[in-house]
Specification:
Elements: H1 3-22, H2 29-43, H3 49-76, H4 81-96, H5 106-126, H6 132-176
Helix pairs in contact: 1-2, 1-6, 2-3, 3-6, 4-5, 5-6
Length: 179
């Protein structure tokens, strides 16, 4: 296989990684780093260090950014640990399809619905000291904040993934298309 064909296959893998960075439960930044490493092995890591460092940093940041964004938004509205645990359990159940079958959206919609329902139930069950109306309102507010934090985290991960791909393209383009 020529380096030209390999290059464009790896760029396609990286673009799939960008999509994965925006969409929860799909591989994102790890695909980008793997593609950069494959290009490095195929091309002797010549002129690749900046792209490799950026992809590594993006992978490390992406590992925590979603959790941090969700945590900050949940704490901002006074969410309990129960809401956060409920969101994680709901996310896992939604992804695995243990929630009722969804006619559209599949596991991605299941993740979102599971996180919302899990956060709502966790907060609602924890706040037994409040009247039903007050704890229902608080549980709704918390579940919305958790989803917003998760979406913000995914957008940030996506932006970082785009930066990693652009860095790769800028540092390797001249290897494939010499001037």
């Amino acid at each position: 296989m020529s380096l030209f064909i390999l290059y464009w296959i790896l760029v396609a893998v990286m673009l799939a990684g960008v999509v994965g960075a925006f969409v929860p439960a799909l591989p994102g930044s790890s695909l980008i780093l793997i593609a950069v490493l494959i290009w490095g092995f195929a091309n002797g890591f010549s002129g690749l260090w900046l792209a490799l460092i950026v992809a590594g940093i993006v992978l490390i940041l992406s590992a925590g950014i979603g959790f941090i964004a969700t945590y900050v938004s949940a704490k901002g509205v006074g969410a309990s640990k129960w809401a956060q645990i409920g969101a994680v359990v709901g996310l896992i159940l939604g992804f695995l399809g243990l929630l009722p079958a969804l006619p559209v959206g599949g596991p991605i919609l299941g993740i979102l619905a599971g996180a919302v329902l899990g956060a709502f139930l966790g907060e609602f069950l924890y706040r037994k000291d409040l009247e039903v109306k007050a704890r229902t309102w608080l549980a709704v507010k918390v579940s919305i904040a958790i989803v917003i934090g998760s979406v913000v985290g995914n957008v940030l991960e996506g932006v970082l993934a785009i930066a990693a791909v652009l860095t790769f393209l800028l540092t390797t383009w001249s290897q494939v298309y010499p001037m």
